Amino acid sequence: MKAGGILNRDLMRAIADMGHTQIMVIGDAGVPVPDSATRIDLALAQDIPTIQQVLKYIMDEMIYEKVIVAEEQKKYNPKHFEAVSGLSKRCQVETMPHEQLFSTYLPKAKYIVRTGSFEPFGNVVLQAGIDAPKWFAKDGCLVPGYYEERVEYKG
Q: For the domain that residue 96 is a member of, what is the CATH number?
């Protein structure tokens, strides 16, 4: 038996299955799941579990290089935006219009994790990354400029 962290088998399998640049969406109770994505349904009741609760555990287990939310989240749900930003230790949270976020990332999502959140504009897109400090640690490897910040990541 696993000692801690994420205990849900399907969610752990999904995290282990993610490859560089692939997309995982952590969605609210109403997130539409296209047929092309695998749904991991964690919703039990209203706000059980919340996006923030699930996101914290996923971010602890997954190497991500982008976090993207709807720009409307920043304006209409600022406490949620602050919480998501506080959880993101690897990168700044990016924003884009809600409709663009849905049309761009839902069709690309490998996994969509449905929570019980009733959270306006609450969905969070994670793009899988690589453990850059380990990838570029080999003697003789040169770090491209766009990876320099990721190579310095220690957490």
A: 3.40.1650.10
pLDDT tens column, 28-40: 999 999 999 999 9
Provide the edge-to-edge strand list for the sheet that holds 64-70. 38-41, 109-114, 23-27, 124-128, 64-70, 93-96
The DSSP secondary-structure symbol of 132 reads H
Annotation marks residue 20 as catalytic: yes
Quick check: is 114 in a domain? yes
Q: Which domain holds residue 47?
A: 22-151
Classify 142 as helix, strand or coil: coil
Number of domains in the chain: 1
pLDDT at res. 143:
84
Within a domain: residue 14?
Answer: no
SS3 99: helix
DSSP symbol at 28 = -
Q: How far is CA 70 from CA 32, 61, 129, 140, in A?
A: 15, 23, 21, 40
The contacts of residue 45 (CB under 8 Å, 6+ apart) are 116
Indicate which residue of 20, 75, 89, 134 is catalytic.
Answer: 20
List, for residues 55-65, the tens digit of each pLDDT value. Answer: 999 999 999 99
